[in-house]
Design a protein that fits this description.
Pfam families: AAA_11, AAA_12. With about 1150 residues, the protein is an alpha/beta fold. Helices cover about 35% and strands about 15% of the residues. The chain has 36 helices and 37 strands.
Length: about 1150
């Protein structure tokens, strides 16, 4: 294979490559042997459709693009012999062209005044007389040089005077390389070329567009000084009032006064700077005097408010030289002074405001976006349920057990998209009216809110399983969201991209507060220019305990810096009512300090608070997941995807019969239609209920894209690793000739060794095999946690990066998770034409932004099921998926649905089909096909009322929580497993036990591990972790912690929560319902989606263990299910019936 296409990485000979380039319209190709691009000699244009090799008779051959050729030669000078892609000859003559270009004297290497004989020997005029074979040589000047040198047939007019000016070009061969005349490194290998290009692409894909020209060298600013806290009071409302003033009186005299005051302020600042250059001590005094003047002038605020309200406040700000804010959708709250702030925080710590119970609170909601305050998360609700953070310090680590997701069946909204849109408009109108309230009224109501909010919280908790400890802390049940967020309603559409990005940035801030600690000790340099978006933060490097938490000890020992360029942060006031989203533009280490030049992200609506000192702010670092999401927000430029996120325009859908030749004859009509739709549309939303062949459909989509588009790489992502692995295993088995790559997060790599079914295609295993022997030793030591030197770490990183770049660049299909798609491995991809996202409902919308922001996407496919569980987060906004929101807002009107299930026995699937999928799903298998020998009842409900449930309590950070277990059900489940093993001959590997509660999972695992029949060799229990998406650090409070995403494996038997078993299937499933109490409470078993997942995991047999009396009284859907079971006569009180 002589040539390789840079677009799709196909390697072909000259003839096949020219056909490939003509058919696919791919543009760039390179010579595999030398690694050299086929490009123009003059301008290095590599578009082969514009190139031609030109032969000037027997004198010379050159390679030029059409533009350079027309520029250099007139019509009379242009030769008749040309080799191009259009005439199918350019690559055939590539070797001859290179031979002519590299032609030089065989003895001295001279490139000019050459002579050649019939044997192809080349000598210059100086060396020719010295040679023994001086006869039979033809000179370049004869015009016949190339005919002899290349062995071409001489044309009749071949001896005519050449029309090319200047004779044969020199400086293109070995001598030209030495002189630097020709931009070509002949020694560059294929790997070197790939590494060089990968570096360039990675650099382009890592850039955050900056609106500031500042750097650490040219930054001009002043040190932030500690000022009177009252200065902060004037800061927030003035920006709001000024923005309102600018909107209401643009072009009026107020605008002129603003300009005049700006000019005066600039003049004043220039004078102060000049004085500072002359005398530093005098400058310090001036700064202090200026602060004192500001404090004196602030005292006039109350009187000004009494006279003319908001507009006088705007004028007052101008007197104080406070620069007006830009037009924003987010005015600011007041920053309280130290005493008021402390008192308010202590009050709020005991009670979280709930606007549903206190309409007065809502009057304080000024017009703005969600990121200004927690309550604004609920943009669609008339009132807010999110209170201010009561404590500036984040919570501590969570406990072992975790909470489930999607607590209520009520989360399945029955409101139509139209009704929701009307509610949105109504809410916006109410908010506009609220914005007209005066600041005095707002502050008055603000003092009342803590008392009222406490009442509202009590009302909200009356119907929940929420109690209180002796010290007043709330006790939460597993699966129930935190009280202050439980009335959240998602926003269906956004007016613009900045509003959208602000909304999700604020949600990320709320989540990161639960995971990371704030940095409080730093100093600030504010910019002199009021319009500047960059400033400097100085942080002590040595003996700083706040920084030790940012990096693990082994990396700190290697001298890794605690900060990196492009690293995002949240910069906020101490009361967290104002937040700036920033990233590190440039950093250095000077005199034991990190000097960070940080810049605001483009969607910030707040200007820098240059009147305030560092003690009034704090800095919140972000996790790797949040960092990748925030970076992805800067890369969303595709207009179609922006429309998709905003949710205001209908997504176009094209239906066209491509008359495809499908690779499998087992596809049903709904699967074929889905494949056709993907090829015709840039955005496809495909609903895939359980067992409907999503994996087979995705496999066919990938095959058709490869055959029709010849576009690589195809990226396949999902929230969980199990969903990705299912597709990868099927492709690996059915299409071994396709170059497949599996990329994992660092935490998962150790679980995918060489013995794993996908171990051979995992990037970390391939990289390890290609490491040099010395670097393999370093890698082994690093895996064992041993210390390695800084030089070894640097060499290891470089070699690992070089190998990674090559492997990723040559891959045709890449499988990874959503967050891992934002890693450095995929930064080397110039464009990613097709992205397929499986289990889209498990992917939070925030994490979906990562694959959605990759470069060059032409087709994006969402595959999911909104009737199954979504992800979980303590912040409800971060658990909703884009898949669900697009279906809810009505912009995707006719989603496709795979309508035939092949997994479940018809007796098992009958109820979910009827009650959950409204009869739109059908069975593709018969009862005979799914029958298991000896099993009479594929659906079996065991009435277990042997004793009540037990509550298990746990404390996590500031919250006391509880979960449930039922030891009586555990004992019966052991008996059922033994029946399946011994009587029904079911292998343990084909049995799964699922339960809603993590405590029951752990109790079952402990009992089964000790059981001699089930685990005769007393093998230790194994655990299979899966990173479901985002925010899974062990320190977070809710159900999304890693503990909930674990599957316990006892001698092949799988035990898991319902949430973590989504995406899995087994021949037999035992469902432990746990709940059995006199109050008939069933907690988050009420969730329709959780029940759907639990009932649809089994292929041949489903055994439900629980108390039917409690279940049917606890929820209407459970009442229907129990009634269905009674109709089928499959409820039994004795296991002998099984």
């Amino acid at each position: 294979m002589d040539f390789q296409c840079r677009t799709c990485n196909q390697a072909l000979n000259a003839e096949q490559m020219m056909k490939h380039l003509s058919a696919t319209r791919h543009k760039t190709v390179f010579d595999i042997s030398s690694g050299e691009d086929v490009c123009c000699e003059e301008c290095q244009d590599a578009n082969i459709h514009q190139l031609q090799i030109i032969r000037f008779g027997g004198e010379d051959m050159i390679l030029l693009c059409n533009a350079c050729f027309r520029k250099d030669y007139s019509e009379t000078e242009r030769p008749a012999t040309s080799y191009s892609l259009q005439n199918g000859s350019i690559l055939k003559f590539w070797e001859r062209y290179v031979k002519v270009r590299e032609c030089c004297c065989n003895i001295c290497g001279e490139e000019s005044r050459l002579n050649v004989n019939q044997t192809g020997e080349v000598l210059c005029d100086k060396c020719l007389p010295k040679s023994d074979k001086s006869k039979g040589f033809i000179s370049e000047k004869s015009g016949r040089f190339l005919y002899i040198y290349l062995g071409l047939n001489e044309t009749p007019n071949g001896t005519r005077k050449p029309s090319k000016k200047g004779g044969r070009r020199v400086g293109r061969g070995k001598k030209g390389e030495k002189d630097g005349k020709f931009k070509k490194d002949k020694k560059e290998t294929v790997e070197d070329k790939i590494s060089r290009i990968a570096y360039q692409v990675k650099k382009e894909n890592s850039i955050i567009q900056s609106s500031s020209n500042s750097s650490l060298r040219n930054f001009k600013g002043f040190k932030a000084v500690e000022s009177d806290p009252n200065i902060a009071i004037s800061f927030n409302p003035t920006k709001a009032n000024k923005s309102e003033t600018k909107k209401n009186s643009s072009g009026s005299s107020n605008g002129k006064k603003v300009k005049e005051n700006r000019t005066n302020m600039n003049k004043k600042s220039e004078k102060e700077v000049n004085k500072g250059k002359e005398n530093k001590s005098r400058n310090k005094k001036n700064n202090v005097n200026e602060v004192n003047r500001d404090i004196y002038q602030i005292k006039a605020i109350p009187e000004a408010k009494k006279k003319v309200g908001n507009q006088v406040k705007a004028k007052f700000d101008l007197k104080n030289n406070v620069k007006p804010a830009e037009k924003t959708q987010e005015p600011q709250r007041e920053i309280l002074n130290a005493a008021t702030n402390a008192a308010t925080e202590n009050t709020l710590k005991k009670s979280k405001p709930k606007a549903d119970a206190n309409p007065k609170i809502n009057k304080n909601n000024k017009k703005g976006n969600a990121y200004t305050r927690e309550s604004k998360l609920n943009l669609n609700a008339k009132k807010s349920t999110v209170a201010k953070k009561s404590n500036n310090q984040p919570d501590k680590t969570s406990s072992k057990w975790t909470v489930g997701s999607d607590a209520d069946s009520s989360r399945e909204s029955s409101v139509s998209p139209t009704e929701k849109a009307n509610a949105n408009n109504k809410t916006r109108n109410q908010q506009k009216k609220v914005n007209n309230k005066t600041a005095g009224t707002a502050s008055k109501e603000k003092s009342v809110s803590p008392v009222t909010s406490k009442k509202s919280e009590i009302n909200l908790n009356q119907d929940k399983d929420v109690e209180k400890t002796k010290n007043g802390r709330l006790i939460y049940e597993e699966g129930e969201p935190l009280t202050k967020y439980n009335a959240f309603k998602p926003t269906l559409s956004y007016p613009d991209l900045n509003t959208y990005l602000n909304d999700y940035s604020y949600a990320l801030f709320l989540e990161q507060k639960l995971e990371n600690d704030f940095i409080q000790k730093f100093s600030i340099l504010w910019p002199r220019n009021g319009k500047e978006t960059a400033f400097i933060i100085n942080v002590d490097k040595n003996n700083n305990p706040e920084l030790e938490k940012l990096l693990p000890p082994n990396l700190l020992a290697l001298g890794r810096p605690a900060f990196n360029e492009r690293q995002p942060f949240f910069f906020c006031t101490q009361d967290e009512q104002q937040i700036w989203y920033i990233f590190i533009k440039e950093l250095s280490i000077q005199r034991g300090k990190y000097v960070l030049l940080v810049e605001l992200f483009s969607w910030n609506n707040l200007r820098l608070p240059t009147k305030n000192g560092p003690s009034q702010f704090k800095l919140l670092p972000t996790s790797a997941q949040s960092s990748r999401i925030l970076f992805a927000m800067t890369r969303i430029t595709n207009p179609k995807f922006i429309d998709l996120l905003l949710g205001q325009k209908a997504i176009k859908q094209i239906y066209f019969d491509n008359r495809l030749k499908f690779s499998s004859d087992k596809l049903n009509q709904s699967q074929k239609t889905a494949v056709e739709h993907v090829l015709n549309n840039s955005i496809t939303i495909l609903q895939g209920p359980p067992g409907t062949g999503k994996t087979s459909t995705i496999e066919e989509i990938i095959i058709q894209v490869i055959e029709r588009f010849h576009a690589f790489p195809i990226l396949c992502v999902a929230a969980s690793n199990i969903a990705i692995d299912n597709i990868a295993e099927k492709i690996l088995e059915n299409r071994p000739q396709i170059k497949i790559l599996r990329i994992l997060s660092k935490k998962k790599e150790q679980q995918y060794g060489d013995d794993h079914p996908l171990g051979g295609i995992c990037l970390h295993n391939i990289v390890y095999k290609n490491l040099s022997p010395d670097m393999k030793l370093v890698a082994n030591r690093a895996r064992r946690g041993e210390m390695i030197s800084k030089s070894e770490d640097t060499k290891f990183y470089k070699e690992k990066t070089r190998i990674t770049n090559k492997i990723v660049s040559l891959s045709q299909i890449i499988f990874t998770t959503n967050i891992a798609a934002g890693g450095r491995e995929l930064k080397v991809i110039k464009e990613c034409p097709v992205v397929i996202m499986d289990e889209s409902t498990q992917s939070s919308e925030a994490s979906t932004l990562v694959p959605l922001s990759l470069p060059g996407i032409r087709n994006f496919v969402f595959v999911g099921d909104e009737k199954q569980l979504s992800s979980f987060s303590n912040i409800p906004q971060l658990e909703a998926s884009l898949f669900e929101r697009v279906l809810s807002n009505g912009t995707y009107k006719n989603p496709l649905m795979l309508d035939t299930q092949y997994r479940m026995h018809p007796k098992i699937s009958e109820f979910p089909i009827k009650k959950i999928y409204n009869g739109e799903l059908k069975n593709g298998v018969t009862e005979q096909q799914k029958a298991w020998p000896g099993v009479e009842h594929p659906l079996f409900f065991y009435q277990c009322d042997l004793g009540p449930e037990s509550r298990v309590r746990s404390t996590q950070r500031d919250i006391v929580g509880f979960t449930y277990e039922n030891k009586h059900e555990c004992q019966e489940i052991v008996k059922i497993i033994q029946i399946l093993m011994l009587d029904k001959k079911v292998p343990l590997e084909e049995i799964g036990v699922v339960t809603p509660y993590s405590a029951q999972r752990d109790l079952l695992s402990d009992v089964l591990t000790k059981n001699i029949v089930i685990n005769p060799r007393q093998v230790s229990m194994e655990q299979e972790y899966d990173e479901i998406e985002l925010f899974n650090a062990a320190g977070s409070q809710g159900a999304s912690s890693l503990q909930n995403n674990v599957i316990n494996i006892i001698n092949g038997l799988h035990v898991a929560t319902v949430d973590s078993f989504q995406g899995h299937e087994k021949s037999f499933i035992i469902f432990s319902c746990v709940r059995n109490n006199s109050d008939n409470k069933i907690g988050f078993l009420r969730d329709k989606r959780r029940l759907n997942v639990a009932l649809t995991r089994a292929k041949h047999g489903l055994i439900v263990v629980g108390n039917k009396n409690v279940l049917q009284k606890g929820d209407p859907l459970w009442r229907d299910y129990i009634a269905y079971l009674e109709e089928q006569d499959v409820i039994f009180t004795d296991l002998a019936a099984y």
